[in-house]
Amino acid sequence: MNLTLKIWRQNGASDKGKLVSYKVADISEHMSFLEMLDVLNEQLVNSGEEPVAFDHDCREGICGMCSLHINGEAHGPDRGVTTCQLHMRMFKDGDTITIEPFRAKAFPVVKDLVVDRSALDRIQQAGGYISVNTSGNTQDANAIPIPKADADEAMDAATCIGCGACVASCKNASAMLFVSAKVSQYALLPQGRVEAKDRVLNMVSQMDKEGFGNCTNTGACEVECPKGISITNIARMNREYLSASIKND
């Protein structure tokens, strides 16, 4: 395939930034989207130009780093995949593809397509953990009876990779789906009940401090989430938050 790429180039958060057009040729439909960007960068380096900065690590849909806005969609036109799992067969010869970073006040641009998503880390640090007795008198987690339905729901929530697609796809740049997944994975299990009140209050408070928007239940976050995290988690987090707020008063 021969393609035209319109890529956002920005040299730091203070730079204005702009879309720059590039041509790439002989792109195989079997390439991943990131492999296609590798081809472009090799082309740029060989011609003495600065390569396009973009985040990547595992390239297996696990780390969540490859967060790109492609033709107006977080992670591109496919569903249930991250950008590194998106293949060029989703596009046609002669297509023009617009590639931008995730847009949110809480995700400042580092360079080109790379954004600082450490706000999500700080939310996680505010309460996304449990206390475990490691004194030598520990209880085997497998010995704690948990209904299978609860265990399955907790595991579904725990599949969140923190890529930020929910934020990028939300018109309000809300992080509610991310936070609710992190709250739910513990709220459904007995091990998570010890810090339940502090967890939800602290994580929601940190989310607000980071500058994320409010949730208006449009559901775009669930549609674009590569792991299919359900917005039912948002309802669960709201219940947890209301309960914790009442008990806190």
Task: Tell me about this structure.
The chain has eight helices and seven strands. It is of the alpha+beta class and 249 residues long. It has two domains: 3-111, Ubiquitin-like (UB roll); 118-248, Fumarate Reductase Iron-sulfur Protein, Chain B, domain 2 (Orthogonal Bundle). The strands form two sheets. A five-stranded mixed sheet has the order 2-1-5-3-4. The chain has a two-stranded antiparallel ribbon with strand order 6-7. Strand 1 and strand 2 (18-24) form a beta hairpin. Helix 2 (118-127) runs parallel beside helix 5. The radius of gyration is 20 Å and the shape is elongated.
Features:
alpha+beta, 8 helices, Ubiquitin-like (UB roll), five-stranded mixed β-sheet, 249 residues, 7 strands, 35% helix, Fumarate Reductase Iron-sulfur Protein, Chain B, domain 2, 2 domains, two-stranded antiparallel sheet
Strand content: 5-15%
What's the β-strand tally?
7
How big is the Rg? 20 Å
- Which class do the helix and strand fractions yield? alpha+beta
CATH class of the largest domain: Mainly Alpha
SSE series: EEHEEEEEHHHHHHH
Global outline = elongated
Can you tell me the residue ranges where pLDDT is under 50 for at least 5 consecutive residues?
A: none
The CATH homology group name of the largest domain: Alpha-helical ferredoxin
Note the total helix count: 8
Task: Calculate the mean pLDDT score and round it.
Answer: 95
| Residues in helices, as a percent range | 25-40%
Largest sheet: 5 strands, mixed
Q: Gap between N and C termini, in Å?
A: 62 Å
Task: Give me the CATH fold name of the largest domain.
Answer: Fumarate Reductase Iron-sulfur Protein, Chain B, domain 2
CATH architecture of the largest domain, please? Answer: Orthogonal Bundle
Order of strands, main sheet, comes to 2-1-5-3-4
Whole-number tally of structural domains:
2
